[in-house]
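Fig. S4 source data, part A: sequence.
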Amino acid sequence: MARSKNILLAGISGHIGQGFVVKQYTNRTVVSIKPDMSNAGKSEAQMVAQSKFKMAQAYAKSILLNPSARLYFEQRLQPGQLVYHAVISAYMKGEIENDQ
């Protein structure tokens, strides 16, 4: 892990290419090797959340194919919001009950 005082890296965080990560800690910038997460397992809560998100995506796709249901959601959109994302958001918040 290398500490950096380079002004170009100040305030930056994220990946650099495939092998490095830039992290910000309180008052310093750190460049380190990208962690290998290939052997990390998923928790039960993560698997439940992924499953719910997959169901939300499938439901949103079905809404896009149904003109009357799509119109229902289009009328309730915020400016700049897409129907697909609005449906997923509502599904994940529990505002939509779907028994598939």
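Fig. S4 source data, part B ends here. The chain has two domains: 2-33, 44-92.
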